[in-house]
Amino acid sequence: MKRQESVISAISEHPPGTGLFAFFRTMTRPERDTFVACAAGWALDGMDFMIYPLVLGTIMQVWHVAAGRAGLAATVTLLASAVGGWLAGFLSDRVGRVRTLQLTILWFSLFSLLCAFAQNFNQLLVLRTLLGFGFGGEWAVGAVLMGEVIRPAFRGRAVGSVQSGWALGWGGAVLAQAILFSVLPPALAWRAMFAVGVLPALLVLYIRRHVAEPELAVQSRARRVAAHGHPSLWRIFAPDILRTTLLASLASAGAQGGYYAVTTWLPTFLKTARGLTVIGSTGYLAFLIAGSFAGYLAGAWLADRLGRRALFLIFSAGASVIVIAYTELPIPNAAMLVLGFPLGFFASGYFSGLGPFLTELFPTSMRGSGQGFCYNFGRGIGALFPTLVGYLAALIPLASAIATFAVTAYAMFFLAAYALPETRGQPLDDR
């Protein structure tokens, strides 16, 4: 009750606005703490995941690993994250969003650290697979947590702004790469990169002290306990919700398949096709990351301004065009440097609408399970793309392999998003 009164007071003192960060003016302290925790968690999550693509070329050289098998490690991480995200979402419906969020962060931090001590590629493959379970769960639970805390009018901007933390984490990984590969030999530098991935564990201390369970989730869980029942793990496949589950899963698969086809292999593409060193490619990746960060923020604003579907359609089409230009046109390196900004912008910005969109599609009693499954089913299917790019690159140039699978994924995203309903401004179903 006190928290509701605080929100009403904040709204009356600071009327809602249309700016990107207008929601900050009406946030209560608990809402701000939740926002900070989720943004930091997603940034550190992004850092942990992007470490592997950045050291991929080095691992291939040190352990003499073929491209297809090297891509497999990225794929199994994403496949495991698909299972982990669904199970973590289901667990959050039963034991709480905050408790499950802490567990997932500790999990992927631990296994990132253990990756630093792998003695061969098979060990690394197993550890990356185990890391994936926590990696997938963190996003699913954090997105639900944010979606339930923020009011409908600002949900797209708030959750989308949290999503922009991924670009910051990616930037942190690139910065760590530039520093560590400058001061250490490659055979040690890649291990140090994985060791840096333990840092997210410190975030759990902040979450335990500052972040509270959303009232909407607490009340829904209390009603289910009183009724002596929880929805089963398979409830999201019931006839009344099946179409939504399937289409949302396909949209997520297209969104993530395109992203992973590009970002997993781009550092290697810059080195092999463009002849850039690890340090030399840093500037190119910086433009890409800057575009990605801008895309997340623009997507967050557009998700509330134009709607979720319009965001998805515009950005998936734009990403297809830019990927083809970046990989297939005979342009000089200087032009590629600049083109990295719109590539990052379009290939990332639509994710800002995906979190609130999935939150709004499912009722509270199965929101964690539904959102966790759809997003991470998409991640599991998208996980196949890095491996397929690697194997296709044995037959055609790597640039063409990246473009082939990225554009296919974006087309799938476009069609599935078109078939789903618009949910902008929709109050959450508290069943």
Radius of gyration: 21 Å
In DSSP terms, counting alpha (H) and pi (I) runs of 4 or more, how many helices?
Answer: 19
User: What's the structural domain tally?
Assistant: 1
Instruction: Give me the CATH superfamily.
Output: MFS general substrate transporter like domains
| SSE order, one letter for each helix or strand | HHHHHHHHHHHHHHHHHHH
Name of the CATH first level: Mainly Alpha
* Cα separation of the termini: 20 Å
How many β strands by DSSP? 0
Gross geometry: globular
CATH architecture, by name, is: Up-down Bundle
Helical fraction equals over 70%
- Residue stretches low in confidence (pLDDT < 50, at least 5 long) are 1-15
Report what the structure shows.
The two termini are 20 Å apart. The chain contains 19 helices and no strands. The longest helix is centred in the first third of the chain and has 35 residues, at 29-63. 56% of the residues are buried. The model is unreliable at 1-15 (pLDDT under 50). The protein has one domain (29-212, 240-419): MFS general substrate transporter like domains (Growth Hormone, Chain: A, Up-down Bundle), CATH 1.20.1250.20. It is mainly alpha-helical. Helix content is 77%, strand content 0%.
State the main characteristics.
Growth Hormone, Chain: A, mainly alpha, 431 residues
Write the layout of secondary structure elements.
Layout: H1 2-13, H2 29-63, H3 67-95, H4 97-115, H5 121-149, H6 155-163, H7 165-183, H8 186-196, H9 203-210, H10 215-226, H11 242-263, H12 266-272, H13 282-305, H14 308-328, H15 333-349, H16 351-361, H17 367-382, H18 384-392, H19 398-419
